[in-house]
What does this fold into?
Amino acid sequence: MAEFPTELKYLATHEWAKLDGDIVVVGISDHAQDALGDVVYVELPEVGASVAAGDEVAVVESVKAASDIYAPIAGSVVAVNEALEDSPELVNESPYEEGWFFKITPADSAALDGLLSAAAYQAVCDDEDH
Amino acid sequence: MGQLTPLFDEHGRLGAKIVDFGGWDMPIHYGSQLEEHHAVRCDAGVFDVSHMTVVELHGVNVEAYLDRLLANDIKRLNRAGQAMYSGMLNKDGGVIDDLIVYRTGNPCLVVVNCATREKDLAWMNQQAGAFDIDVRERNDVAILAVQGPAAIEKVSGLVTDAQRQCIAELKPFQGAWSDGWFIARTGYTGERGLEVILPVEAAVPFWQALLAADVKPIGLGARDTLRLEAGMNLYGNDMDESVTPLESNMASTVFLDGRDFIGASAIRAQQEAGDYPRLIGLVMQGKGVLRAHYPVFSEGEPVGEITSGAFSPTLQLGIALARVARTSAQMTVEIRGKQVPVEAVTPSFVRNGKAVWKPLEHK
It folds into this structure.
């Protein structure tokens, strides 16, 4: 069964976001990596890029398909996970830790409150599965 | 619920992810498609391909019938049970299906694709009358493909003495009946291996014996990346009735000399005109993945599109088959609006675990 850590916020498009000090870390959920299958390539945003909530900022390519990754909130990209360049499988192996995609300095961290809770996101996934 | 193979419950027990494939519920992977791919390249894997259609052609004129039905020349085969890959064409030279025929005499054994089953059988029956051929589908068999460098040795340890002897005597691309099983040195991976057609009731015990011998179960996902690395076409992706074998990297399966197979005159005309698109290979120079339907450009001009693409687990780069009007040293593929450099290569990437692709000469 997929894991849905309760300390994270989620998008219905399967990204998670975590406030870490004054930085927001973004990745894709356990449910998403399982549905994608083996991840073989990740295209990450430029460090320094300004993003708006809902922007397509990254792409994850699995053996099955290419999927857009959306920015959960507005802000500027301060770091990307360079380890994914040589080890895209980290997205499958550790979606909530080592498989993170990028970090954003949020324009307004209160915007995170508008995202889905773990329970609400899990309900979205259950709906998709049935 | 789609159609189920005799091994469906086995797939479920192994935790396979099941998808619809041509109306059949089939395993796409059992956990990791990449690990399954590597298992076949490095050791041995087993595929349930019982969704494919097995047909027997009964009648004394079976070779005359096949000479008319197929673009490849059955008369060139000189060994009993020798296998031949061929397109079955319509009058315009379009590919109705690609198939394997084993020259087993009367009856002759043919394996065709599952998604094309109905139109194949209808076409084969339509042509059969003039040759007094009885086209009979075999619904009482399963098909397992065991592929990889250790595949033949592992199967040989699990079969009857007669079957072991049969396997030892088979040449590549040859099959034979033994103790009720048809065993052939054929496959869809570019590795050594066997394809086994066996009675439904024997399928589960043989499958379980293979797994106990550490042969890994392989889903259709890895089957697709393995066949693409081997440069083998997938019907419906790389060719269909709208293209001819010459446009589909199947020219080596077309024998025109003095023959009158269905579609021959259209193929002759196309060959004489010479100006037709080719199915080539592409390899990506940077990181990323090539996928079907991405547009292909030569020196900035659109020349065609990718028909099959993937990330090659063996080569660790994006590879594809593409149908293009021409090639050059400046080929690109459009990926999400960006032009990405690729190299035009021979449409065969990996054989027996090794990279084999070569740059194309441009014309």
Observations:
- The two ends of chain B are 50 Å apart (CA to CA).
- Chain B is about 25% helix and 35% strand.
- The mean pLDDT of chain B is 97.
- Chain B touches chain A at residues 17, 28-29, 32-34, 221, 225, 287-289, 291, 310-311, 313, 336 (CB under 8 Å).
